[in-house]
Amino acid sequence: MLRRIWAVIQKEFIQTLRDRRTLLIQIALPLIQLFLYGYAIRMNVDHIPTVVVDQSLDAASQAYVDAMVVSGYFDLVGYVPSQAEAVRAIDEGLALAGIVIPPGFGARVVRGGAQALLLIDGSDLFTSQSAYNAAASIAQAHATEVLTAEVARSGQALRLGSGQAGGQSLLPLDARVRILYNPNLNELWFLIPGTLAMLLQVQSITLTAMAVVREREVGTIEQILVTPIRPGELMLGKTVPNVCIALVNLLTILGLGIFWFDVPFQGNFWLFLWLAFMYVFSGLGLGLLISTVSQNQKQAQQLIGMFTLVGVVLGGFVFPRYAMPPAIRVVGWLFPLTHFIPIARGIITKGVGIAFLWQQVAALFVYIVVIMVFAARAFKEGLD
Amino acid sequence: MRRRLKRFGAIVRKEIVQLVRDRTTLGIVLIIPFLELFLFAYAVDLTVDHIPTAVADLSLDSQSQAFIHALEISGYFDMEMYLEDEAAVVRAIDEGRARAGVVIPPDFAAQVERGRGQALILLDGSDSFTVQSGYGAAVAIAQDRALKLMVEKVSRMGASLGALPISTSTRVLYNSTLDDMVFIVPALAGILLQVLAVNLTAIAVARERELGTIEQLLITPIRPIELMIGKMVPNILVTAFDMLSVVLLGVFWFGVPFRGNPWLFAWLSLLFLVSGLGMGLLISTMAQTQRQAQQGSVLLMLLSMLLTGFLYPRAPMPPAVKVIGNLIPLTYFVRIVRGIFTKGVGLSFIWSDVVALAVYGGVVMAVASATFRKRLD
C-alpha cells in the first residue's frame, strides 16, 4: 500500500516540478496578496470628506464644526450655502458627509435645544458606520462640555464634584474601555491572522481542485484506473505534494506578517504550526472533493469560485459569526476556515493554548476524515 | 464584411452548442448567483449588536444594576453570564465564550455619589467588528447615563438645567434606517456577476489549448478578435440572465429599493459584463493551462472582493493599491451600481466611471486578441 501511494506521490511531484511557471505563481501569489491587503484594508474610516452648511456663522457654530474637524474623522472640503447643495455634493460623490447648522445656532445653544444636522452617504458601509459613531460621540462630548461649562459658570460646580482634584471632569460616572490583546487598536493585528487563514484556505482548495478532473478531461485517468491503486490511496498521493506547497505558503505568509507587518505572535509557535498543517490538509481535501464531483474543469472552476467566495464571507473572516442567523452558521461549518479562524486568532492574537481551542481542533480533525472519505467515495462512484 | 459575419456566426454557433450541451455546467452557472445572494444577504450583519458579554458586578447596588441594565437595553450587549471577578471575565473572553466584559468595582454607588464612579469595559481585541461597535456603544451609553445623573443632581440642588444645549440629528442619505441589505445587495450583484463572468471565459481559450482543439481553430480563416467576441456572445446571454434575476431577487425578495433608471442600469450592466468576460478572456489567453487560468481567476476574485470598494472603503487605501483596484472592472461598477441603484442619480453624476468602464472593455478585448496572436508562434 505504501509503495502504491509512494508511486502516486512521485508522479505528482514530477508533474508539479515540471510546470515551473505554475509553481512559481502558486508560491508567490498568497505572499503578494497578504502584502496588498495588509496595506489596503482599513475598516475604521477617518478623514471623511465633509461639506459644511453654516447658516449661523457665530461662535457656537464655529466651535461645533471645529470639534468635528479636530476629531480627525471629518475633513472639511468646502462650505456650501444650503442643505440642497450639500446633498448634491454627496450625490456627486464630492463629499461623503455634510454638516448643516441652522440659523440662530448660538442663541439656541444658550437657551438649550440647539439642533445640528449631519448628512451621511448611506451607500458606503464603513464610511457611514464610522461617521455615524464618530458624530454621535463628538456631539455628545461637545454637549457635555458646553453643559459643564454652563454649570461651572452658575457656581454650583464646586460642590458637585467635591471629591475631585482640579474639577476637570464633573461627570459622576465614567467608563474606561480596555481592548484585550490589542490595546492600541492596531488594525493589522486584527487583519493579519484572519487574512492568513483566508489565503491558506483559498490556496489549498485551488491547489487540488483541478487534480482529478484534469486527469479525467485529458484522459489519463484511464491509465491510473488500470493500476492496482485504490481511490483512498490516490487521493492521499495527490494531496502530499500540494501539502508541501501549502506549507511553503504558510511559512512565507506567517513570516511576512510577523517580521514585515510586526504582528506579535503571542502563543505557542509549534502548536500553531501543527494545527495549520491540519487546516491545510482539510482545505486540500475539500479541493479534491470538488475535483472528483466535477465532470470537467469548467465546472470545477465555477464551484471553486463559489466555495472560496462563500467561505470567505461565512467563515468569519470579514463579519463575526455570532451575528449570523443559526441556519447560516451551520452552512459555515462546511468550510475549514470557520474552524480555523478562532484557532488563528486564538493562538496568534490572544496567545491561548489547546485547552481553550480543543473544540475547533476536534472539528477540524473530524472534517478532514469526513472529507477524505467523501472524496474517495465520490471517485469510486464517478468511475462507472 | 459578409464573410466576416459568417465566420463570426460560425464561432458563436459553436460556442452556444458547447454551452447548451453541457447541461450540468449550465445549471451550475445559472444557480450559483442565487445561492450566493441568499447566503450573503442573510449572513452579512454590519452593525454588530447582541455581543455576548460577561459581567462581574462587585457592588451589586442600585447604581451598578442601573448601569448594567442601561448597557443591556441598548441592544448592543447581551449579558450572558455573571462571574465573580475581573480575572474570570478575562478568562471567559480568552475561551471565546464572551466577546465583551463589564467589571464594576466595589462600592460603585458611593463612588458615583462622590462623582468618580468608574466602570471597566473589556473588549475582545481579536475581532475588529466587536471592538468597533462595542467601543462606540459602551462609551455613548456611559456618557448618556452620566449626563442623566448630573442633570438629576443639579436639579436636586435646586437649579434647573433644561434640555441638552446641543443635539445632533443624523440623517443617513439613501439608507435612512441603516439597513444592511441596502448596503450590501447592489454591490453584491456586481461582485457575484463579475466572478461568474470571469470564471466563464477564463478557461475558454486555455481549454482549447489543453485539449488541442485550438489547432483546428487556427487553420480556419477566423481572426483573433472575432474568436474572442464569438466566445463572449453566448456568455453575455447567460450572465445577463443571472444579473437580471439577482437584481429582481434583491428588489422583490429582499426589498431593496431601486431608485434610478432601470434602462440606464441595464445598459451599464451589459457594459460591465462585457468587460468582466473580456478580463476572463485575457486571463485565458495568458495562461498556458487551465490550472494557471484558474489560479488567475481566483486571484482576481479575492482582489475584487477586497480592493474595489465592495467591502472595504477605498478612501484609506494607499495610492499604489488604488491603482491595482483600478485594473478591475468592479471598481467602476461598484460606484455605478450604488449611484443608480441606491442613490438614484443619473448619467451626469457617474459619467467618469462609465467612460472608464467603456475604455476598459475595449482595451481588455484588444489586449486579449493581441496576446492570443502572439501566443500562436
Write the layout of secondary structure elements.
The complex is a heterodimer of chains A (384) and B (377).
Chain A: H1 2-18, H2 20-40, E1 48-54, H3 59-70, E2 74-79, H4 83-92, E3 97-101, H5 105-111, E4 114-121, H6 125-153, H7 157-160, E5 173-180, H8 187-209, H9 211-218, H10 221-225, H11 231-260, H12 269-293, H13 297-314, H14 326-332, H15 336-350, H16 354-381
Helix pairs in contact in A: 1-11, 2-8, 2-11, 8-11, 8-12, 8-13, 8-15, 9-12, 11-12, 11-16, 12-13, 12-15, 12-16, 15-16
Chain B: H1 2-21, H2 23-43, E1 51-57, H3 62-73, E2 77-82, H4 86-95, E3 100-104, H5 108-114, E4 117-124, H6 128-156, E5 166-173, H7 180-202, H8 204-211, H9 213-218, H10 224-253, H11 262-286, H12 290-307, H13 319-326, H14 329-343, H15 347-375
Parallel strand pairs in B: 1-2, 1-3
Antiparallel strand pairs in B: 3-4
Helix pairs in contact in B: 1-10, 2-7, 2-10, 7-10, 7-11, 7-12, 7-14, 8-11, 10-11, 10-15, 11-12, 11-14, 11-15, 14-15
What does the model show?
The complex is a heterodimer of chains A (384) and B (377). Chain A has 384 residues and is of the alpha/beta class. Chain A contains 16 helices and 5 strands. In chain A, helix 15 packs antiparallel against helix 16. The longest helix of chain A has 30 residues. Helices cover 69% and strands 9% of the residues of chain B. Chain B has 15 helices and 5 strands. The chains are: A alpha/beta (384), B alpha/beta (377). Strand 5 of chain A pairs parallel with strand 4 of chain B.
Low-confidence stretches of chain A: 157-169
How large is the share of residues in beta strands of chain B?
A: 5-15%
Number of helices of chain A: 16
Most strands sheet of chain B? 4 strands, mixed
